[in-house]
Amino acid sequence: MYKIIGADGKQYGPVPLEQIVGWIQEGRASGGTLAQLEGSTEWKPLSAFPEFAQYFTGPSPLPPVSATQAPPSGAGARADWEQLAQQYIQRNRWQGAGHYIGRAWNLLIKNFWPIIGVYLLFCVVSFAAGLTGIGFILVGPLTGGFWTYMLHKIRGQKAEVNDLFSGFSASFLPLMLVSMLGGAMTLVGFLLCLVPGIYLAVAWAFALPLAADKRLEFWPALELSRRVVHKCWFSVFWLVILGGLLLQLLGIVACCIGIFVTMPLFMLAMAYAYQDLFGD
């Protein structure tokens, strides 16, 4: 039996080995999750336990970037994020588009109405924001909040409707800039030549969740996403094509109503992919 410290800082357990293995496979526990064997006083990462080591590959887990920790700034900032990107790249935990969509489907079925309800609210608020004339300013923080909700869901943390609006109180400016400037630069890439636009759209796919989840400034978020995705670009591209286009096409064919299921499904799949690429 074991006790663990969850991502929310709370202690859970005692739970059996099989339960922790299940949490690892669901992405709710990582190699850096602290655990204590019943009867022991020592807390250590799950990756340090021989019985769990087989579930973690690559180098030791990265130290987490605190939600309240400011990203580096100044002359050393670029080097810091380049080093962090290399660590994420070397870890290489990508598991395939089908794997992420399958996990997303299992989670969606278990939490169908809460997830669909929050997505519908996201759509309504986005539409209302567009009517104000300043929707282009609000869409980034709002989407960042939706990412936060999805990440809380896949991590087994408490996910609330208020998460949808968390981007307006935390990282508002970075989320706005990632959405506006990242979108503008991607559009320029499409206008100049189709290939650069496609490359940037995929490479920057995780910039918004990086800004929302790790409180990064807009350029480190864009760069960190690009550098890590670059090494598995075609794999991420396949997930975007399979989930972002084919699933949405199926949703539209299903009298357009199906898109209210396929879009949250795609977002959950992307959240699982984000967790493997950038999770602590």
Structure description:
There is one protein chain. A four-stranded antiparallel β-sheet has the order 2-1-3-4. The longest helix has 21 residues, at 172-192. By secondary structure, the protein is mainly alpha-helical. It is 62% helix and 5% strand. 36% of the residues are buried. The chain has two domains: 2-53; 79-278, no CATH class. The chain is globular, with a radius of gyration of 19 Å. It has helices spanning 17-25, 50-53, 77-91, 97-110, 112-131, 135-154, 172-192, 194-203, 207-213, 218-230, 233-253, 259-278, and strands at 2-5, 11-15, 34-37, 44-45. It contains twelve helices and four strands.
Write the layout of secondary structure elements.
Elements lengths: L1 E4 L5 E5 L1 H9 L8 E4 L6 E2 L4 H4 L23 H15 L5 H14 L1 H20 L3 H20 L17 H21 L1 H10 L3 H7 L4 H13 L2 H21 L5 H20 L2
Antiparallel strand pairs: 1-2, 1-3, 3-4
Helix pairs in contact: 3-10, 4-11, 4-12, 5-6, 5-12, 6-7, 6-9, 6-12, 7-8, 7-9, 7-10, 9-10, 11-12
